[in-house]
């Protein structure tokens, strides 16, 4: 072999080795770059992790905070119930009344609710609001088992058993005692409850539905003449077309003059005068008879009453509670009505 050929072969081998070495170094560099990049990504992910959130704190519920909500707002229109609870009303004054030194402390109490629609200031404007009110009755026994149903359209108040309107007095259990059996608790607080389901209202007849809106607990007080016994006014709805609707006070009104005035005002036709007078006189006779019977029934009830029951009636007390003023609720301080 010639020497020139050997040198060329050696040179080619050296070049190939150099190329392989260079390729190997480049591969190592790429691997190093990938490792650095991977570490950088990992470092970035660690930095991007969210900080730990601070724990949230909630106010403890007061022991009787939901008392006013548990009391059924009797006489409130069904479609207005949701509006009663649109505000977070505060009845801490009612809760405080059950604490030591309060007017209801240590006493047997019966509570019922109602609502009073009033125009009150809220968020710099006046607004009609259904204000919830709670009435507490201090009594050793249920103060009533009847409901009075009265409206402008009804001539007389209808008195029916509470159960007929699906209402009854049930024990109220404060929050701290709700893990115990009701039977073992000697409850001193009873609330008026209604079991009528709102989902079933669409199946009720209109008259039955309206009865709920005109309800109020009927309290019989034998030692005091009620408004019915004292009243000398009768509601008149003379059945003609259109009907003549008015009030007649037999103590101050005279039938002939009263009738002539209606004719002058064209509320009554001339040829209906005699029939109208007879109608009014009959209504007055009915009202006077009812007053006499009510007084006699009250007198008889007192005679047959035990001394213990008499003492209970005489010691019965009523307290009315409105929500207290808070930044989140309308101010009702100027629209309160006494019992």
How would the blueprint of this fold be written?
Layout (H helix, E strand, L loop, with lengths): L2 H46 L18 H4 L10 H4 L7 H6 L11 E14 L2 E14 L7 E4 L8 E4 L5 E5 L17 E6 L11 H8 L1 E3 L9 H4 L2 E6 L5 E6 L5 H10 L8 H32 L2 H9 L1 E5 L18
Parallel strand pairs: 1-6
Antiparallel strand pairs: 1-2, 2-10, 3-4, 3-7, 5-6, 8-9
Protein name: Protein HEAT INTOLERANT 4
Organism: Citrus sinensis
Overall description:
It comes from Citrus sinensis (Sweet orange). This is Protein HEAT INTOLERANT 4. The protein has 339 residues and is an alpha+beta fold. 36% of the residues lie in helices and 20% in strands. The chain has nine helices and ten strands. The strands form three sheets. Strands 5-6-1-2-10 form a five-stranded mixed sheet, with no helix packed on it. A three-stranded antiparallel sheet has the order 4-3-7. Strands 8-9 form a two-stranded antiparallel sheet. A hairpin with an 8-residue loop joins β3 and β4 (158-161). The longest helix is centred in the first third of the chain and has 46 residues, at 3-48. It starts with a helix and ends in an 18-residue tail after the last strand.
């Amino acid at each position: 072999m010639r020497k020139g050929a050997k040198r060329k072969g050696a040179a080619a081998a050296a070049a190939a080795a150099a190329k392989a070495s260079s390729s190997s170094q480049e591969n190592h560099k790429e691997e190093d770059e990938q490792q650095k990049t991977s570490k950088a990504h990992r470092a970035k992910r660690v930095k991007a992790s969210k900080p730990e959130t601070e724990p949230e704190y909630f106010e403890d519920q007061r022991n009787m905070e939901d008392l006013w909500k548990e009391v059924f707002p009797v006489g409130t229109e069904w479609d207005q119930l949701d509006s009663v609870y649109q505000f977070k009303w505060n009845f801490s004054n009612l809760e405080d009344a059950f604490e030591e030194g309060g007017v209801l402390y240590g006493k047997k109490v019966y509570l019922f609710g109602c609502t009073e629609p009033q125009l009150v200031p809220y968020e710099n404007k006046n607004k009609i609001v259904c204000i919830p009110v709670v009435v507490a009755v201090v009594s050793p026994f249920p103060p009533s088992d009847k409901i009075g149903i009265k409206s402008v359209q009804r001539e007389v108040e209808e008195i029916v058993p509470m159960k007929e309107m699906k209402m009854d007095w049930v024990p109220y259990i404060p929050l701290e005692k709700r893990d115990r059996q009701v039977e073992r608790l000697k409850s001193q607080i009873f609330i008026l409850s209604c079991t009528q389901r709102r989902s079933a209202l669409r199946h009720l007849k209109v008259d039955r539905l309206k009865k709920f809106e005109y309800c109020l607990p009927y309290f019989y007080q034998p030692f005091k003449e009620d408004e019915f016994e004292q009243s000398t006014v009768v509601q008149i709805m003379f059945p003609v077309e259109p009907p003549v609707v008015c009030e007649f006070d037999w103590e101050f009104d005279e039938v002939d003059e009263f009738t002539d005035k209606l004719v002058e005002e064209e509320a009554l036709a001339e040829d209906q005068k005699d029939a109208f007078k007879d109608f009014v006189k009959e209504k007055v006779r009915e009202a006077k008879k009812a007053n006499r019977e009510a007084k006699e029934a009250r007198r008889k009830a007192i005679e047959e009453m035990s001394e213990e029951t008499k003492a209970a009636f005489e010691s019965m007390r009523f307290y009315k509670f409105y929500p207290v003023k808070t930044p989140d609720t309308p101010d009702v301080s100027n629209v309160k009505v006494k019992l």
